[in-house]
TrEMBL record:
<keyword id="KW-0624">Polysaccharide degradation</keyword>
<keyword id="KW-0136">Cellulose degradation</keyword>
<dbReference type="InterPro" id="IPR017736">
    <property type="entry name" value="Glyco_hydro_1_beta-glucosidase"/>
</dbReference>
<comment type="similarity">
    <text>Belongs to the glycosyl hydrolase 1 family.</text>
</comment>
<dbReference type="InterPro" id="IPR017853">
    <property type="entry name" value="GH"/>
</dbReference>
<keyword id="KW-0326">Glycosidase</keyword>
<protein>
    <recommendedName>
        <fullName>Beta-glucosidase</fullName>
        <ecNumber>3.2.1.21</ecNumber>
    </recommendedName>
</protein>
<keyword id="KW-0378">Hydrolase</keyword>
<dbReference type="Pfam" id="PF00232">
    <property type="entry name" value="Glyco_hydro_1"/>
</dbReference>
<dbReference type="InterPro" id="IPR001360">
    <property type="entry name" value="Glyco_hydro_1"/>
</dbReference>
<dbReference type="InterPro" id="IPR033132">
    <property type="entry name" value="GH_1_N_CS"/>
</dbReference>
<keyword id="KW-0119">Carbohydrate metabolism</keyword>
Length: 472
């Protein structure tokens, strides 16, 4: 599997999932610190208080990445670590928090690893939630802009790839629709409001970057998540259902940025006045506000036109708000499932990449997350021979390779995740890491999949010198 020269190979993590140090050096609490304290919200009462203690062990982690030959690393900045109240006010900037990220970035660059920085991977400063209603408040766009500006000022001399938001769909549907993620709200109105202000905040941060930090010469974009939706049958209503499901999933956040400056028409029709309106100026600032198309992709489901009963049974289905989309989702019982019960369907990845290229005019796409939770067995010597994860990666990388052959402009791939970490509401039981982290000792050990991935990356990096090397 020879990938184009210059292809970006990396792994990804997020702050709350690995850092720990939840109150170290003056860090403020986030909505995830609070959510974890609510009994029953996170499996086994797990929290991210310690996580992988990356806050104290980052040098070891960077050295590990370097030893695996990794060339890029996507991580997120914890907003309340650098701005404990979330707002720019007197004394509200924490130099210690800034120093942590600055040291991390320097360590990466010393090892020839390119930092890709996400500004928001779900850990909103708690005060913005309790005092100001979080993403429901239109004014949050100003707070996000101020926070983004601080990051550009402090790190932009060294960081050349920025991602404003990780997965608005998860923030809105799981956080404000189903209530299974922080802040734990359940509604069929709030997801659309929160999504609206996330998009406005994204546009403001990008405008700030492009107007004030152009001299830094970096790229900025947004990462959305989308699972593929395959029509269940050849019936036209199933084809329409699959398309509609993709528009409610990805089109919701991608059309405003990459296509029209506004939401898909089908959402307007079905969501009606629960879907907020952008001003003309907002539409203008949204359209074209991403230098690349960030995509997190994990799985595939069949879509069928919903029977009325189905829609009523499941008000907040796992594809969004199902009463609005009227799509019935299912999986093929033959498909292999990961530990998370997500189906392993590499061809869905290939089809999704093509769908994005066709709908959005062949943007430069980066897969900023792809990976799986598997039932790892730790051997007596502490190693993990995770052949099922390895074949997951082989399958999905093959699909990416084929997509490039189909003409898709795929520029990079980040495995989720560098190491086993705090898997949100599922706690530590589910492990997505290439590197095993022992929960007692926090010792890091690369799994078989990590060594394989490392080989793929190295051989691709060597392509010029050793053209005969063949992988896969
Ligand atoms: C990512 O989101 C997150 O960015 C990351 O922090 C997290 O650790 C990682 O996932 C693993 O959970 O139930 O079959 O309908 C993933 C977004 C949205 C992907 C829901 C799977 C549901 C599949 N996910 N989707 S299914």
């Amino acid at each position: 599997m020879r990938f184009p020269e210059g292809f970006t190979w990396g792994t990804a993590t997020s702050a709350y999932q690995i850092e720990g140090g939840h109150d170290a050096d003056g860090k403020g609490p986030s909505i995830w610190d609070a959510f974890c304290q609510v009994p029953g919200r996170v499996a086994e009462g797990d929290t991210g208080q310690l996580a992988c203690d990356h806050y104290h062990r980052f040098r070891e982690d960077v050295a590990l990445m370097a030893s695996l030959g990794l060339k890029a690393y996507r991580f997120s900045i914890s907003w309340p670590r650098v701005m404990p109240t979330g707002r720019l006010e007197k004394g509200s900037i924490k130099r210690e928090g800034i120093r942590f990220y600055s040291d991390l970035i320097d360590a990466l660059l010393e090892h020839g690893i390119e930092p890709w920085v996400t500004l928001y991977h779900w850990d909103l400063p708690l005060a913005l939630q309790t005092e100001r209603d979080g993403w429901l408040n239109p004014e949050i766009a100003d707070d996000f802009e101020a926070y983004a500006r601080l990051c550009f000022e402090e790190f932009g001399d060294r960081v050349k790839h920025w991602i404003t938001f990780n997965e608005p769909w998860v923030v809105t549907i799981l956080g404000y629709g189903q209530g299974v993620f922080a802040p734990g709200r359940e509604s069929n109105v709030e997801p659309y409001i929160a999504g609206h202000h996330i998009l406005r905040s994204h546009a403001k941060a990008v405008q700030c970057y492009r107007s004030e930090f152009e001299h830094q010469g970096g790229k900025i974009g947004i990462t959305n998540n989308c699972d593929w939706r395959e029509p269940l049958t050849d019936r036209p209503e199933d084809h329409e259902a699959a398309e509609r499901a993709l528009l409610f999933y990805l089109g919701w956040f991608a059309d405003p940025v990459f296509k029209t400056g506004d939401y898909p028409e089908v959402m307007r029709e079905r969501v009606g006045d629960r879907l907020p309106e952008f001003t003309d100026e907002e539409r203008r600032s949204l359209l074209g506000s991403s230098d690349f198309f960030g995509l997190n992709h994990y799985t595939t489901m069949f879509a069928a036109g919903a029977s009325k009963d189905g829609a009523e049974q499941s008000v907040y289905g796992n594809g969004g708000i199902s009463e609005d989309q009227e799509v019935d989702l299912s999986v093929d019982p033959e498909w292999e499932l990961t530990e998370f019960k997500w189906a392993v369907v590499p061809w869905g990845c290939r089809k999704l990449l093509k769908w994005i290229a066709d709908r959005y005019g062949s943007p430069a796409i980066y897969i900023t997350e792809n990976g799986c939770a598997m039932d790892d067995v730790v051997l007596p010597d502490g190693t993990v021979d995770d052949q099922d994860r390895l074949s997951f990666y082989r399958g999905y990388l093959e699909a990416c390779h084929q997509a490039i052959g189909d003409g898709v402009d795929l520029r990079g791939y980040f495995a989720w995740s560098l190491m086993d970490n705090f898997e949100w509401a599922s706690g530590y039981k589910f492990r997505f890491g290439l590197v095993h982290v022992d929960r007692q000792t926090l010792k890091r050990t690369p799994k078989s999949s990590a060594l394989w991935y490392s080989d793929v990356v190295r051989a691709n990096e060597l392509q010029g010198e050793a053209p005969s090397r063949c992988l896969g």
